[in-house]
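Fold this sequence, please.
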Amino acid sequence: MKETSIDQAYWEQRWLNGSTGWDVGAPTPPLREYIDQLTDKSIRMLIPGCGNAYEADYLLSKGFTSVTLLDIAKPAVEKLRARYAGDDRIRVLNEDFFRHQQSYDLILEQTFFCALDPALRKDYVEHMRRLLHPRGTLAGVLFSREFSDPGPPFGGNKEEYEKLFSPFFTIHTLAPCYNSIGPREGTEVFMIAKT
């Protein structure tokens, strides 16, 4: 199995090469439908590993006023900073997620967890817990499959996620997505976990 160094240089090279196969050009239906049922438009929200941040465009169109976008890859961040220049509803940060030190009501997960080396998963869960206010929510999509190629992306399954998240969160939903995009149909679960 080929080993890959998954660091800032790796992700920046993927952006520079246009190797962004995770990018589907829009927010995915599971996240759109989750966002549609949120009523408090003032909640402080984080999207880590945000990439092109299509979810942010959707959030703004729905009236949300406090969205932080975080990505380690400078090319992605530069693009977003140009796109959202002058919009005080959006903050765009070029930071390592594990060094980020803010506090949020809601964190949206879409293709960030699966991009991390599985050895970092416990650290991810613990840091997510630290970033959320009491009664905060982590919500989003996780893969429910394994991949034959060395990652990223890295797969997993519902049982693994329950074991990983339950010591730090109360899991309210961890169920197969009924509204995945075609290529991901039957391979995703939607999770809502609260502090």
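The first helix runs from residue 8 to 17. Residues 4 and 61 are 38 Å apart (CA to CA).
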